[in-house]
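Retro notes (design track)

What went well: tokenization of the new backbones is finally stable.
What didn't: we kept losing track of which sequence belonged to which structure.
Fix going forward: every design gets posted as structure first, then sequence, in one message. First example under the new rule, 120 residues:
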């Protein structure tokens, strides 16, 4: 199973970025969920957004709700995280995650991470 993120970078506060995560070698079953987590130095990875692969039902951390949108393209086996109105505190390494434990729960599979830096 491979998850490969892309789309990170350096942006100004208030700008937008879209992260992508291409999944290969994984069979999305009935209980599969995909999530985005983020991590800053010295802290644990924290949940950002997630969705059920089959139903598309999504959930967000309160810090990003209304600004971030998680979607998936089933035909491309790709998960997206549209990040709008970025804030300085959104700076982190963002990780794509997949598993069968549900939205918001760390699944078994991780990508390598992509750095997002928001500057003033």
């Amino acid at each position: 199973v491979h998850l490969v993120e892309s789309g990170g970078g350096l942006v100004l506060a208030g700008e937008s970025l879209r992260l992508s995560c291409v999944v290969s070698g994984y069979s999305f079953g009935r209980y599969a969920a995909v999530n985005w987590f983020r991590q800053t130095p010295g802290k644990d990875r924290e949940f950002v957004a997630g969705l059920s692969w089959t139903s598309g039902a999504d959930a967000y951390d309160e810090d990003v709700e209304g600004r971030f949108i998680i979607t998936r393209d089933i035909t491309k086996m790709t998960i997206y995280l549209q990040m709008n109105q970025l804030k300085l505190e959104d700076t982190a390494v963002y990780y794509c995650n997949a598993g069968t434990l549900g939205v918001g729960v760390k699944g078994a599979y991780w990508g390598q991470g992509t750095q997002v830096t928001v500057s003033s």
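Added context from the reviewer: The mean pLDDT is 96.
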